[in-house]
Please model this.
Amino acid sequence: MRTDPGLGTGVYAVSEASRLTRVSTRRIHGWIEGYQRADRRGEPVVLGDGLRINGVLQLTFADLLEIRVINVFLNHGVTLREVQRAAVAAASRLDSTHPFTSAQFRTDGRKILLEYISEGGSAELEEIADKQSVFRRIVEPFLNDIEFDGDRPILWWPAHQKKRIVIDPARSFGRPIVNNCGVPTEVLATAAQHAPIRDVARWYEVDRIDIRAATHYEASLAA
Model:
């Protein structure tokens, strides 16, 4: 587990990652660090960065996206053990520490999901495939919100609003912002709770439609 975030990477506290992905902090810790049970230790599901800064777990932008996709799998009936096996197989096949959010996974994801090694050492091809074609029908729409540079994810457009809201690890410390002006959505939404939109638009020199988009997005996170 690394202890420095590196340059050009968004770094997220577990609590902020939980807010953005709607995955509990307990699950995030377990997926990155592994679950400690009385009789055994569960292996991590997120195989990527897992930063430690002053002893506190922090997530990179790639970790954030990986958690989001893993949560989609679980919400549609794939077990955590199946996801962990698929993650290991996909990581090996794609040579990636974040296989579920690589561009290669997006184009070849069906085959990756079908292939993992059973406890007996044989290749299993059916179990995940029977989950209603999980990748094609469920996961791909979520990956459509991700913008890639080669195989590496660089932007997340989380709000489906004509690309108004973006999470960019290179801007505003990776916080959700209005793309046109770079103002964090949380700042605009908070200001709009205490003042008319026309005043907020003047203060921050942003369009009113951007303020409404930011307010709607922040409300969706709190729902």
Remarks:
- Residues 157-223 form a domain with the Arc Repressor Mutant, subunit A fold (CATH 1.10.10.10).
- The mean pLDDT is 81.
